[in-house]
Amino acid sequence: MTKMNYTRDNLWQIEEVGFDSRYLGKTESIMALGNGYLGSRSATEERYPTEQRDTFVAGTFNKFAENEVSELPNVPDLWWMDFIINGEHFSLEKGIVSHFSKRLNLKNGELIREFDWAFGTIELHFIFRRFVSKKRRHYLSSFVTIENLTEAAVNIQIRSGIDGQVTNNGSQHFYEGEKGLVDGKYIQMMPQTNESQIDFVFTAGHRIKAENVRERIEMGRRQIFMNYFFDLPAKGTAAIEKRMSIYTSIDNDHSDREVTAIRQRAITEMEALEDISFDELLQESAEKWNEMWQKHPIEIDTENFEDQLAIHFAKYHLHIMTPAHDERMNIGAKGLSGEGYKGHTFWDTEVFMLPYFNFTHPDIAKSLVTYRYLGLDGAHKKATSNGYEGAQYPWEAANPSDGEVTPVWGAADIVTGQSTKIWSGFIEQHITSDVAFGVKQYIDVTGDKEFAEQKAYEILFDTAKFWGSRLEYNAENDYYEIKDVIGPDEYKEHINNNAYTNYTAHWNVTYALALAKELKRSQPELFNHLNEKLGLDAVLDSLAEKVDKIFLPQPTEEGIIPQDDSYLEKKTIDLTKYKSADSVDGLFHDYNLEQVNQMQITKQADVLLLLYLFEGLFPHEMKLKNFEYYEPRTTHDSSLSLSTHAILSADLGKLDESYEFFKKARNIDMGEYMKSSDDGIHAASLGGIWQMIVFGYGGVRMIDGQLRIEPHLPKAWKRLTYGFDYHGESIDVVVTKESVELTKEDNGNNVMFVSNGETYSLKNKLLITLEEV
Hints:
The chain has about 775 residues and is an alpha+beta fold. The chain has two domains: about 30-290, Glycoside hydrolase, family 65, N-terminal domain (Beta-galactosidase, Chain A, domain 5, Distorted Sandwich); about 300-725, Glycosyltransferase. The strands form eight sheets. Strands 1-2-8-9-10-11-18-15-14-13 form a ten-stranded antiparallel β-sheet. Helix 18 (about 640-650) packs antiparallel against helix 19 (about 655-670). Belongs to the glycosyl hydrolase 65 family. One of its GO terms (molecular function) is glycosyltransferase activity. Pfam families: Glyco_hydro_65C, Glyco_hydro_65m, Glyco_hydro_65N. This is Glycosyl hydrolase. Keywords: Glycosyltransferase, Transferase.
């Protein structure tokens, strides 16, 4: 029986014990390897029918056909190895498997798979090791050890190379290209994507430590591989090291993009590493990992050791999925760990993942928000196609200039048997204000004036310009409304005046007007430049006329903010069985989306997300009433939901309930349910883990451009240590039940922050007792 195994003795290890091919997807995703440039599911070297062998290179989007949307292509497989032992194809689905362990070292990014395998008279001990280099973005490596446990020699054949027969669930994105052997040592394959025409160069070399090894090269369609033959003596050991690299013609670390030059670059790298061992290459990668781990480490003093493991797990994945090397790229909703959502970027980045980078790695955050600046052309394209002005950001984004890339058709409707139309790309429009919110948060946290002046202000004005054209005048009530949308609750389609959408649009417009006023006063030349580029005079006059008439759903007599115009009139059902299920699709085994649309059922935090992000707009009692109304109606079918509920309930003093949400969120990928992550990691939930700890329990928040720190630990935690960057200052925080201690270097600027209505100034060290807080 296979299961996840975590221990308090090793808070840096994710382990699966026992093998069951039905559940390969779980560890393929949660033990994925990567470095931001590339990411790879941890599929086994040998192949199984239930596996998903995915490796992706960030930003290499391609369309299989004109009527399909761009997706990250699954590139040729480099990890593959076949083992034929005494004429038998090796597989863990036959014979006897014992002492099976598959484990990921989160600290250094090494994956190890180890087991004993017995089949007839064969008895072998295998150890598979692999890593993707954190230091050398193009480099991958694996090392396999085979030990003969018997007194009889064993004949072994190994087939290992580059397999271009992999697809994206059947879609083949590559022309085959040239392939061959170089200098008798390295095999190469050079395919090209069929629509975006990106050239790839894959290189692999082998080192075999065994006696009397014979070798033979073979080629097949979209394949090139080496055959190695040798006898493993009684009680003997053999080792196979495989060194690999991936380069593309869009890489930004080399200027010569011709395939011949890229091929030579790859060979030159391999030759330069010949005298460096596998362990030395792993060590240099580990040292780069350590630089990240030393930046604002989080320590949790608690008996629930999984909490500490969870933040290590979350930070590891946030860094292997984020293309920090290239501002033309962003984070996919599944990172680089699976084909789910096709590698596309959503609002997940701005609301759930960007905050981590804002406060801990502002250089990476800058790259992520620059991607949105580069996406203005695509946003203009979408706005124009819909008859609007300004920048309407796509619900799903690929290359920044592409515009909307959301698929039109999705899963089956269980009632009609037809494909369900995906309306998000058409009418889920809060993404535009989410982008603006993320950009504003970046400026507030980092104080990056250069980015603000050169890029951010343009985004903030252009998005407000969109909302000005999107507003619809209601003459009967003399207000402007936003009709026919989808809010964060994607179980409600074609609704009017979604609270989250309307309030965030209002914020976007209000902020743009205030910004224009300030720039006219303090930086008239900058304002004139933006005015000339965007035609702001007319836009701002129009926005000023409309802003106070934007309809903002007001609370009922009971204090409930309507999620939209019709939500509170819909019928209710008991959601107990759906909320308690391991999987998140049970609701649609009983109802189709049209039926769910007529019920008070919410997929994920909607109104509550609004209360969390814009807490200054709503009094405590109103937030509490809305929490108690909407949470029982929320299925949490989205991985984005639980972290919001955990943070908001902590703000409301419901710490026991908050901690239950935290544990559920922590277990979305790490938990025992073995089918949770088949399509890939839940990227936003990993950003949510950091937010729950630092924003929720550590109490850090940006409110209306001002830093606030109001910690409150759950009962299970005795002490929390964390850190963050703010306006170029590095701040360390220690929270206990009795006090909050903040420290920073005293040679910088004082940091002003608010805590429970009091303003504090941190110069070097500051201790605040809980009575003060």
